[in-house]
Every structure is written in structure tokens, then in C-alpha cells.
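Collaboration report, partner site 2.

Our partner group contributed sequences for two proteins of shared interest, and the home lab folded both. The records are reproduced in the order in which they were received, starting with the first partner submission.
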Amino acid sequence: MEAFEYRKEIGMSLQRRQVLQLLTSAFGVGLTLSRNESMAAQSPAAPASSALPKKAAAKHSSGETEMEKVAGIGGLFFRARDPDALGKWYAQHLGINLTPTSEGGTVWQQEAGPTAFTPFSEKSTYFGDPNKMWMVNFRVHDMDKMVAQLRAAGIEVKDPETYPKIGRFTRLHDPEGNPIELWQPE
């Protein structure tokens, strides 16, 4: 059993390395892997029609350069008891393509929009199960359609709640009990 788990980890490391190399060459950025998997931080020439436009650092009126900031969330990584089954669930029910493991695959493309980034107290009950350390919030266009689609698939979804000037929210859990919040912005 240990040998199987080791081979599985090695295979995942190789797949991860291949995906990161593909992303590195596609976006012209150097990426770093954990532990002994580090790739050389190379900066290959960005393609002529780069998907990530470079933004010149703005200057304050005092002449100081503004702090560089991240442009968005580049990935969400979490542990799962059965990663393959859980990945299929997210693809089937929420339409999220997983990180490709081959050259022909496509990565999930998000739409531009607001993203909440909020640390909570470790004692917060907002996520439900106190053993869950994270919750993901996905933006949706049509809350009623999404809720109906999930319920038709036998997935328990709370009735949406409306918050003026913010939008509509609902909650569900993936098959491993991880909390998911859906948000339809106003």
C-alpha cells in the first residue's frame, strides 16, 4: 500500500510540474514548486498576445512608486480524501474545469469581478463545521437556476437569502463536507 501511495504522489508531482511548466511558458512567469521540486526561476519571453497584460507601476504625486499588488487568485488548492471523485463533482455540478494534466486541457477561466478575501477568527461558526478551515465563495449569474440545477442532482442547498446592495447568497457542501457559498451580486 505504501508503494502505491508513493507512486501516486510521484505521479502527481510530475503532473504538477508539467502543468506549472505549461503555465510558466504560457504566461511568461517563473513558478516555484514545494520541497525539492523547485524549477529554475526563468522568465521566458512572453507571447505577443499575452493573456496577462503588464501594468506599469503608478507613481504617487510625491514621485514614490506604489506598492505592487497581486492581480487576483491564481488557484485554490486543498486536500481531499478522494481528489479524483471530488474534482469530478466540482466539474459536473459547478462547471469548474480542474487544472489540466495534459497539453490539450484548458484551465478554468473566471470572469472578472469582485473577490472577498477575509480571514475569520479560528472560533468562527460561519463555515459550519468547526473542523473546516476554509470556505470558497463562487459568484453566479442566476442563483435560482443554479439552485434548481443542484437540487435536481440531489444536492442539498439552503434557500437563498437576499442582502440589499450586496446580493443573494446560499450555502451547500461538497461530498467531503467542505462549505461552499454561492453569491449572485446585486
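Second partner submission, folded after the first:
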Amino acid sequence: MTTPTDATDETATDETSTLVFMCVRNAGRSQMATAFAERERDRRGLGDAVEIVTGGTAPADSVHDVVVEALAEVGLDVNGRTPRHVSEETLAGADFVATMGCSTLDLAGVDTDDWDLEDPGERPIEDVREIRDEIERRVVALFDERFGAYDNDE
């Protein structure tokens, strides 16, 4: 894994880190994680240095309405996103894969972590807010660990 550095730093590389967020239906937890990861990538100025992939093993037809609502409350728009399948090749080529409490992945050479999170699909918005906030915390911690702490004074 390459840690991106300031664009003016001559040691910066063109290597991309690929982060994958997946769950079975790709309609809730992994969509929330992806939205937060995209936000972190953008606000940290990581641009093309971080590729974010989301998918599921048995994708649903659409993102859960309650997930769209919960993310909209914090300024993230996933309305219109479609759950998709994630391939074994994509997983094997990733630098980091987070599953959402629904996998026992063992990928040689890939840093994996199972985030044991409740499925927000059929839950009331109050419960989904708690899941959303935990996912945000984990995504921010992941970016801090892999790319350095975020300084929002920049």
C-alpha cells in the first residue's frame, strides 16, 4: 500500500490504494461506508490515489430507502445508486476489504476486516442513524490509519 503525500512532495507516487466495502445485498451498510469513504477521499484531497469500490454477493434491486434518508440527514446523497455485484477478482486485487458483519473472507495478501454491524434494511430510522454514525466513525478511523489523520484546519 502506498500512502499518498502532499502533491508538492516529490516522493508522491502514482500508485492507487483500492478500498472495497461489501455486504450481501449492497443496499445498506456498504453503501453508507462507500458514501463516507468518498467524502473522506475528497476532503483529504486524495483524488485518484484512492479507488473506492462497493458491491455485494447477492445485490438487491435498490439501496434501502431508510439508508438514503439517513445519509441525506448528514449531507450525503446516495439516491439513485444501484447495488452491484463485487467479483472475486476485484476483492483479490484490493488493498483493503471491509465486510459488514456478513462474511468470512480470507483473501491472501489483502487486508480484510469484518465490521460486525446490524443490517439497516428493515430497521426504523432511529436505529439506522446509530448504524450510520458507527460506520462513519469506522471509515474516518480507517482513513486516519491508512492515510494519516485529517486536519480540518487546512
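Feedback sent to the partner group on the second submission included the following. The longest helix spans residues 125-147. The chain has a mean pLDDT of 89.
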